[in-house]
Amino acid sequence: MQRWPVLLFLAWVCFLFFAGIGLFMSGFLLTRIELAHSSSCSDPLTPPPWDRQSLPPGSCWMPQRFSKAVLVIIDALRFEFAWFNPANVSPLPYENKLSFLHHLATSQPRHARLYRFRADPPTATMQRIKGLTTGSLPTFIDVGSNFATYAIQEDNLLAQLVQNGRKVVFMGDDTWEGLFPKKFFRSYFFPSFNVKDLHTVDDGILQHLYPTVDGGEWDLLIAHFLGVDHCGHKHGPVHPEMAKKLTQMNEMLRSLVDHLGNDTLLLVAGDHGMTETGDHGGDSEKEVNAALFVYSKTPLFGTGPPEEPEAVPQVNLVPTVALLLGVPIPYSNIGEVMAELFPGDGDALSAALQQLSVYHVNAKQVDRFLHSYSLVAQDLPAEQLQHLQEIFSTAVEEHVQLLAQMQEAVLVFPELESRLGNLISRFQLYLREARAVCTQTWARFHPLRMVAGCTLIAASCLLCYVTSELATASDSFYRSCLLYPLLWGLVVAVLLGLACTFIQEGLDLLLVSSWAAAVSQVAFFWRWWGRQPKRARVASSQPPLAAIGLRQRLRAWLGLAFPMGILLFRCGAMFSDSFVVAEARVAPFLLASLVVLLVGKLHWDGRLTVPEGPKQQLLGFSSYRKESWYLLYLVAVLLVCLRLSIFFHQCREEIPQCRPSLFIAPLASLRNTRAKNLFYLLCVASLVGLVFVVRCWLRHYGNLNSSDPLVLFVRWGFPLVVICIACYWAVASSAEDSLGKLQELVQVALVAFPWAVYGLVSVGLLLLLCNPMTVFAKDTRESAGPIVTPYLGVPSSEVDFLHVIPQIYRRMQESLKSRLERGSCKATVAAYGLGSVYSAALVIALTLLGFLLLLLHSERLSLAFLLLFLEAFVLLHIHTRARSLAGDAEPFSVPWHAVISWLLAASQFFYSTGHQPIFPAIHWNAAFVGFHLDHSTNLLPAVLVGANTFASHILFAVSCPLLLLWPFVCETPSSQRRKPKKDAQEELQEEEEHMMEMRLRESPERFSAALLQLGLKYLFILGMQLLACVCATMILRRHLMVWKVFAPKFLFEALGFVVSSICLLLGISLVMRVDCAVSTWFSQLQLRSEPRLKSCRLLWGTSDTSFCLLMLKSPLQKHGNLVPSVPSWGSRVAGSYVMEKSGSPASITGSDPRFLLRQKFEVRLKKNKI
Amino acid sequence: MKEAEIKRLLAANLLCVFSIILTTTVPAFFLDSFSVLGTHLTWLCICSVSISALNIVLCLVLKPNPSPKRSSFAHKISRFLKCCIYFFMSCILFHVIIVLYGAPLIESVTETFLFAVLLSTFTTLHCLCMLGPNIQAWIRVFSKNGAMSIWDNSLQITTMCSILGAWFGAFPIPLDWDRPWQVWPISCSLGATFGYMAGLIIAPLWIHWNQKQLTYKSR
């Protein structure tokens, strides 16, 4: 299999997943852009005045009707709770409890009225508060200028009041504190988080409510009661507690009304309803149907109440209250004013004129908002906006005309009245349609899209699984299963695109791509199914084989049960909000369990014990092998790593007793200088340790010998990067207490050092891409040439000698050595570090990425990164050991448990680098590493913050191919034991075992297939996690915690998937790049020795030019630029090869046995012929 | 022969189960305000002590694995001391493993340690009674074909069930139900206890059903 199809296949699978995620997101997540504009009194929105009406001084837009207002929000006050039905003789616990409202409404019909208050989904308290104050439809993500706080950035009622010098007093739910920081004249916040607590908030409010009302130092008083909502969550609506709670509210309202003055408007509102189980968050009738009650001691309404209570959308409250209190309507309001609250001076005509002018202001404001919104975002459909614009302009024109005609008094009364009524209904139509357009785009789930997205993801998971099980299948399979689906998908995409352009509809890229994905998937499964019967037939023709196959398959299934069980637990944990909250502890727990289970299973199978000799069998005793102890040590280290990683966790607000790790705060925040210095040293030490360990590893495998730019970069660039990072940390952590004169210098350094790191890391990555070979080839074939290079300096005999003698000495040494090693006339190429080229490139890339990500985190998290590298290393070793102990015959396939543990470690370190899947926990500081608080585009900070957030996903995904490579790299130690024996057979075996990663090159087909299989397994497990998350979000979209826990978790998981899959592709393509480089390197070597090759052919009569790889056994000088850099002569250089291609039969003894046998055979043939 | 031995095993195991049930009820008569959940530590101590006493007595009475012939008094003493040391070490080891699995490091050390003692009682003490202080024998018993008698099989099953029970016991801890038994380590110790009891009951039944397949190597 070629390299490109592998990448193409993986990219295609990623595309399938992305399409699924996109489809689901478009159905679930409703986004909207927040506008930063705000209204002011001077805005030219005032309606044309009519004869009897002019604005009194000091009021905005409309004359102020009430100087004060009390807004009582009873959380989750469903309409049925407030509705009083005297005919109901046996009321449920929540029915007929607010009798006082009924009393007011019946005794003073022109003072009080009850409405159905229609909340817009999502019916979560925070979104509702936003809606009740901004007058718009908040979605889950309001894309605003600042992500870091929950504070409302948009123009809102409170901001308008404060702007116009009014005093706002608040008491109750502390959610408001975060939403409106510093807006309140006075406030009494009470904790809202504990749903089980029914009374703290309400009692707290009652304690302060009446004194505050009597004190009179307020213009708007908001009291947010939570008891009813909490009672619903705890007991449900049908419970005696609910009756008590509602009775308490009734009493509260009764005494509150006694305290009110004549100029005060009282509003009692529920922010949302609740279902029969007491939950809310979704869009069902019971959740959406809240109650609104309006009352004032002065008459409010011109007419009596209607038979049935009117339904009022929640957003309508905002313009109404704003105009009644005489402040401008908030800029982004899309609500329609409640006109019956503006009855004018009493007669019908003035009421109509007054209402018309109110509508006029309202319509102008909505039009202004729609106009500026459509400039910023394109999600509102253009033709509908056009339509709205037409209604609006004709209505406004006619209004002006009408007023002009009234001035001239050409109109008689009945005609005037009908025209006024007509105009009012046209304004109403405009406002309602505008709101409907917005609702359609912002506030509705698309269940069909959600289900389709879910199905697409599930099908992609299945595809991954099916294909990864077939990885050893033939080339043609991939061609048919990749090419045709791709073609089908492309055809469908093109057809859909053409259709869209023909119908002149806007091209919805998402829909087109998801259709393409679905069709290509169906094509794949069809192809795959078409191949299935063929195999079955083959199997049935050979019954015994089939039976064996069945048994083997059964055993394989049993083996799969353990890792898949752990995966099942992990996915199941996504469905519980508690487990999502506790995931930081769940991931290490499951990882530890998986690894311990693996070791336990090895033990159970008797793989860890010494094979039983007759003596031991007699005694019934067993003891562990040496390797088993090594494995157990590794597991112990892993467990310690897992436990240590818990110390780096960030907290969520759901766990109040949690204290955030002290490692997350930047060093600059430390007051104690000594502790600061100590921590700084520790961080630098961990950084240096990381580099040191990586260099040791590279040197051990002989990858530090060549003088290629990349190796030079590893030698000199790495320390330089470390120095830069250390300097940056030093400057950043002491930035505050530096002297005034140094301030400028410090500012420059704060920018310069990160940029130096960025530059160095990108140079390193570029070098890695250009020439990823870290192999040093020592060619001893061309021993010809000048023995002594002429000295070019000043001719003086003594200096000349000093120059010449070492050269002669070295030459003699070399020739002597080569003769000692390889017998007589042998020409060899020694390649240092060839056995670990792939891993070395990956390790270098990982270290570079690690530096970059370290820089973006706060200083002390470098310890967590050190832990990450250590844990990854230990995990790789555990899997290698476990594999060799289990005697796995299939070296090209990575077992499932390895992949699952790799992904568990990735999500474990997501938490251990100080992250949580909630928005307030994002490290926004990362956007300003190397930048001075200004970004021209949004892309760069997004990339920086994304890299910070998904650091562990990136590192683990890029290093995923190591799971395949590591067992090959670790081959060497197993053969060490045999060293003492020197006989030829042993030598042969030993040399065979030293092929390391070159074994992968022996069968390039299988290498590519193995990479594909690994990638698919990784994507499968990632996809399963994502699928669980998506399903949880979809099923639990009415859950209390959906916007707090599940939706953010889904977002982080989806983004993590995207990042991981892209990084996985990058990692695999890096390995393929190295593969290409190795190929060219081999061919260059071949070219260089063309004449000798001819002799080879002459001698053997074969055109086979494959190289024979031999291990050099004798101590080698570790070569770096011809300087023996390591004093230890006796140490082994693993992975160094000698390539030889000369002719004498003796020299081939150490080569590949098959090759050897064939050649021996040929020799014999020739001899016989002769 | 086998049938009789299975019956003895069943009787012994049922005795163990019964004694665990007794430890939850009987102390309430002697101690004020005793309950498994309320005074969990007391129950842990009582349960560990009574189960170990019962196990030792059973071991002496039933003699599942006759000890080696050489049994001087000094040898017995050294054997006993070795057993004590092993038990203590296993408590420490369990404690360390529990902490590594995520238990609090500094807070509630007593709880964690007593839980470790309970686990050791269910697992290590059983092994010590059956096999003596002989690690090689332990390693042999806990492998696929290592069981040499039905007692060994029973040991395998009860040990695995206890540990599995303790593992599953950790699952309810993060849930926000606010139940008293969700407090560390109550759910885990209860899980271990239920696992142990389940193992005690399952073991004879399993052996009975798989009688034909079970062929033990002779010593």
UniProtKB/TrEMBL annotation, chain A:
Record carries keyword Transmembrane: yes
Going by the entry's taxonomy, the superkingdom of the source organism is recorded as Eukaryota
Q: Which Pfam families match?
A: Phosphodiest
Q: Provide the alphabetized UniProt keywords.
A: Endoplasmic reticulum, Glycoprotein, GPI-anchor biosynthesis, Membrane, Transferase, Transmembrane, Transmembrane helix
Cited InterPro entries: Alkaline_phosphatase_core_sf (IPR017850), Phosphodiest/P_Trfase (IPR002591), PIG-O_N (IPR037675), PIGO/GPI13 (IPR039524)
Q: In which pathway does it act?
A: Glycolipid biosynthesis; glycosylphosphatidylinositol-anchor biosynthesis
Q: Where in the cell is it found?
A: Endoplasmic reticulum membrane
Parts of the chain that traverse the membrane? 450-470, 482-504, 510-529, 556-575, 587-604, 629-648, 678-698, 710-731, 751-771, 829-855, 861-880, 892-911, 950-969, 1016-1036, 1056-1082
Q: How does it sit in the membrane?
A: Multi-pass membrane protein
Q: GO terms for molecular function, please? A: transferase activity
Q: Which family does it belong to?
A: Belongs to the PIGG/PIGN/PIGO family. PIGO subfamily.
Protein's recorded name: GPI ethanolamine phosphate transferase 3 isoform X1
What organism does the UniProt record list as the source? Apteryx mantelli (North Island brown kiwi)
TrEMBL record, chain B:
Highest lineage ranks of the organism?
A: Eukaryota, Metazoa, Chordata, Craniata, Vertebrata
Q: Does the keyword Membrane apply?
A: yes
What is the native source organism of this protein?
Apteryx mantelli
Q: From what superkingdom does this record's organism come?
A: Eukaryota
For this entry, the protein name equals Phosphatidylinositol-glycan biosynthesis class F protein
The primary site where this protein sits is: endoplasmic reticulum
Annotated Pfam families: PIG-F (PF06699)
Any idea where this protein resides?
Answer: Endoplasmic reticulum membrane
**UniProt entry keywords in alphabetical sequence:** Endoplasmic reticulum, GPI-anchor biosynthesis, Membrane, Transmembrane, Transmembrane helix
Corresponding gene?
PIGF
